[in-house]
Amino acid sequence: MPDQKLPTRAEDFSEWYNQIVLRAELADYAPVRGCMIVRPYGWALWENIQQALDRRFKATGHVNAAFPLLIPRSFIEKEQSHVAGFSPELAVVTIGGGEKLEEPLVIRPTSETIIGHAYSKWIQSYRDLPVLINQWNSVVRWELRTKLFLRTLEFFWQEGHTAHATLADGEAETRQMLDVYTDFAINEAAIPVIPGRKSESEKFAGADVTYSLEAMMGDRKALQFCTSHNLGQNFAKAFNIRYLDREGVLQYCWTTSWGLSTRVVGAIIMVHGDDQGLIFPPRLAPTQVVIVPIYKTEEEKAQVFDAARKIRDALVMEGLRVRTDEREGASPGFKFNDWEMRGVPLRIEIGPKDLAKGSVVLARRDKPGKEGKSFQPQQGLPAVVSKLLDEIQAALLTRARDFRDANTKEPKNYDEFKAAVENGFALAFWCGDPECEAKIKEETKATMRCIPLAQRESSGTCIFCGRPAKEKGIFARAY
Asked: What is the model's pLDDT at position 83?
């Protein structure tokens, strides 16, 4: 399949995305509509994402646990805004073991309710707080319009759930986790993100406040990278999560939840990919370096393979993820194209002439053609490769940030606003009225992505109605 030409992003971005997910063997369609099979290459990327996040979660005092897949329907109904928000997306089990169940069970769309039930038993005193738990799992939401990684019926994610003694502690946790996600997005995924607060209409069902990170994709649409929710006391009151404070007074806890899913894989594809295929940021790439031996005769093959394997071993000792392409019956050109399509950040080419010179050819994925090629001595190669991977990581972040900034406008009037959201982000004052937000969505198909936490100006006029406004929001068409 790699030799079949991909549609360009300009021709058909959606089909380019679909094809690259399938051809690079990241995922495949499952027999159940809207579900996906994550293939080993895609799962390796997800494992690297997991590890990078898990390190950060544990460094901030969180521990992992596992909660059940099946939740009593009555649990979902205890928090009214929660059930209203999720009812259309629920998958419900009514028969078990050939018998009709006394109470239907919901396949978890998220775990606030079952975890709230557990916390009500575990938390008795202020000494039990805070509770800082995360779980890695999958959830089911009955989506009507699906797309591999971006929106599927079942998807993989992590969901953190915490309980605190005060509103201030809950808010600090919510913001801390947004900062953790921001650090991951920028330093691991090389994706520049905008941290902000969701509008009332866009916030999580059952939250007091929802924060998110918003990112611009290669087609200039927005994608919600992750969310962090301050749930206030809504779930604590619904599930009776209470503790005795220092004065012996019974108080309701303050809870939070926060999550990031496999849609981040889709974000990495759409932010960094080009018309040749994927470009993975080195820190998350399943394979950081691929070595392609080049030879014509069996004698050359033996010598080149021996050198390639020694280079591989030296790079592995450096802590790098390396593959040597020893496939029979495939030309070097085919292999180059195949690995470019699969997004490997750095390719090492070695043939008889390179052996004679004691050198190799390095080819950067982020700079196709001659611009990205260099000759390097085999001596000291691991240090050179590590440095080059760091340069590629930084270059991808810079390129993505420059692209986003070039396609973010600050319109002065509604006509300019409409033009801006046709092809990028609009950063504009909004009065906070949900009616203005709804009208904007109806007329432009652009939604309020977030109200950035960083606000350069403190007053202006709403881009839609002209009334006084105190904050600017990011508006865009989104996935």
From this structure: 65
Could you report the per-residue pLDDT of 369-385, keeping only the tens digit for each?
899 999 999 999 999 99
> Do residues 244 and 447 make contact, with C-beta atoms less than 8 angstroms apart?
no
Q: Which two tokens stand for residue 5?
A: 């030409």
Which of these ranges, 172-176, 267-271, 345-349, 454-458, has the smallest mean pLDDT? 454-458
Residue 352: asked if its preceding bond is cis (omega within 30°), the reply is: no
Please state the pTM of the whole predicted model: 0.96
pLDDT in tens, 118-148: 999 999 999 999 999 999 999 999 998 999 9
How large is the average pLDDT for residues 327-350? Answer: 97
CATH number of 289-388: 3.40.50.800
Q: Which residues contact 453 (CB under 8 A, 6 or more apart)?
A: 195, 196, 197, 211
CATH of 13-272, one of 3.30.470.20, 3.40.640.10, 3.30.1330.40, 3.30.930.10: 3.30.930.10
CATH number of 408-476, picked from 3.40.50.1970, 3.40.50.280, 3.30.110.30, 3.40.50.11090: 3.30.110.30
Following DSSP, what letter does each residue of 308-341 receive, concatenated? HHHHHHHHHHTT--EEE---TT--HHHHHHHHHH
